[in-house]
Design a protein that fits this description.
The complex is a heterodimer. By secondary structure, chain A is mostly beta strands. Chain A is built from no helices and eleven strands. Classes of the chains: A mainly beta, B mainly beta.
Chain lengths: 116, 112
């Protein structure tokens, strides 16, 4: 059981380049999330999804886009990369919805992204 | 009202000592309070969680104390070990809500 898988683990981008961070989960979770974690800081929510075809903005969505075409996958797209987007990006998933009492989030091991 | 305030920012404890991390919240609709543990180079992982119908939950050396009237909860790590050195996040969420609100994190270092 792989849980939440993020690829790549590391990446260096030049300013203005674009890339997609991949996230896949095999737990049939309906909720998925993207966070960024800056050094010594907490987790900031970028985007989240409550099911295939449904996404919404978190605290810091500017400069990012997401899509959710399947239950398993939730890619994060960076367009026109900027130095301020240098961070560690975590994807997470959980069960969610009115039929569930609160459930914990399961995190991937992150993508470390540097923009130079 | 959606914030979860966590303290201290960092903590150094001697091996065998007790580590205590505190969190406070405002939104009384929160009904699930997990703690996550994060080791360097890894994602956060659920450590222990509590719901507001109990005042304490213990799992091994880890205990959550919950004070509903004060809207505060804390993590106690008994007999702290060097292997407990990590960043700890408290969090809160509500049934039917879409998001989990995380505290800013506490970096714990246990000296051998």
């Amino acid at each position: 059981n792989a849980g939440v898988t993020q690829t790549p683990k590391f990446r260096i981008l030049k300013i203005g380049q674009s890339m997609t961070l991949q996230c896949a989960q095999d737990m049939n979770h309906n909720y998925m999330y993207w966070y960024r974690q800056d050094p010594g800081m907490g987790l900031k929510l970028i985007y989240y999804s409550v099911g295939a075809g449904i996404t919404d903005k978190g605290e810091v969505p500017n400069g990012y886009n997401v899509s959710r075409s399947t239950t398993e996958d939730f890619p994060l797209r960076l367009e026109l990369a900027a130095p301020s987007q240098t961070s560690v990006y975590f994807c997470a998933s959980s069960y969610g919805g009115q039929s569930y009492s609160n459930q914990p989030q399961h995190f991937g091991d992150g993508t470390r992204l540097s923009i130079l | 009202q959606q914030q979860v305030k966590q303290s201290p920012q960092s903590l150094i404890v001697q091996k065998g000592g007790i580590s205590i991390i505190n969190c406070a919240y405002e939104n009384t609709a929160f009904d699930y309070f997990p703690w996550y543990q994060q080791f360097p180079g890894k994602g956060p992982a659920l450590l222990i969680a509590i719901r507001p119908d109990v005042s304490e939950k213990k799992e091994g050396r880890f205990t959550i104390s919950f004070n509903k009237s004060a809207k505060q909860f804390s993590l106690h790590i008994m007999d702290s070990q060097p292997g407990d050195s990590a960043t700890y996040f408290c969090a809160a969420s509500m049934t039917g809500g879409f998001k989990t609100i995380f505290g800013a994190g506490t970096r714990l270092f246990v000296k051998a």
